[in-house]
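Lab manual, section 2.4: Encoding a predicted structure.

Procedure: take the sequence of the chain (305 residues), apply the prediction step described in section 2.3, and record the output as structure tokens. A sample record is shown.
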Amino acid sequence: MNGEMSRLSKRILRPVGLRRSWLFLPGADRAALEAAAASGADVLIQELEDFTLPEDRPAARRISPDVLAGWKARGIVATVRINPFADGGRDDLEAVMAGAPDAILLPKSNRPGEIADLDLAIGALEAGYGIEPGSTEIVPNIELARGLVQTVAICGASARVSAALVASEDMANDLGCERLPDLSELDHVRRRFLIDCRAAGVLPIDMPFTWSSPDGARAHAVSARAMGYAAKSAVNPAHVAILNEELTPSAEADAEAGRVIEAFAAARTEGRSRVMLDGRELEIPHLRRAEAVRVRFREFVEFER
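Recorded output:
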């Protein structure tokens, strides 16, 4: 096992900032878990909480190491969402860590202490399984109001936290929202969560679009991108290609960023700090945004080679 762990640890792991699509999958459905490797998702999540009945969790734990190995062999970020520690999560964690998941997702993360406890447990299991210390990431799932208002503290509770994910259904239930086909009733949650994750320095992952409509999924992905999200979760494999398309910088966006950068370069030779371009007056923040788009576009191009 240690030799296999060593080999897998040397694979090129997709950088956190390039993980656009996060797909939840039923934890005990081996056929669905294996088929998902062809979905195109950047991150696959073996879901042991709501997608797995309590009586099916032992089977899900048993198949986890093999499933994770298969995903890793395909270059996919391989993760598991365990249950809260108070509901069998420790047993989940001990079993799935045998497969050296890239990240552990913790549902209903409501307090920083829960993340600190998970960090300690992961560290002990890394040592026991011969996994590189500190290599297992943590992704808190913010699903209730009391977790939402502590997002910054939760994300700061462990150096392992690389990203955080905001939920839709549990959050809506907790808030008493009326469910709408476009999920717009949760836009205030999405915006607050994004701000807090940026303040905490972790990747914010937008909630899944939980209706079946491809057009609705695209519209929700477009709204996520407009808000500032670069990553989004899904529960429907058919939505993955849509997320990847909408959350990948396009060649057109890169070209437009290049125009802005060139315009500022020309302005500087004339001693100007502002630029008029296509009827818009642009300032330094526009330049910084253009530079960020260009960097992100090139990161994708380089990684996909």
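Check your result against the sample. The domain at 2-246 is CATH 3.20.20.60 (TIM Barrel).
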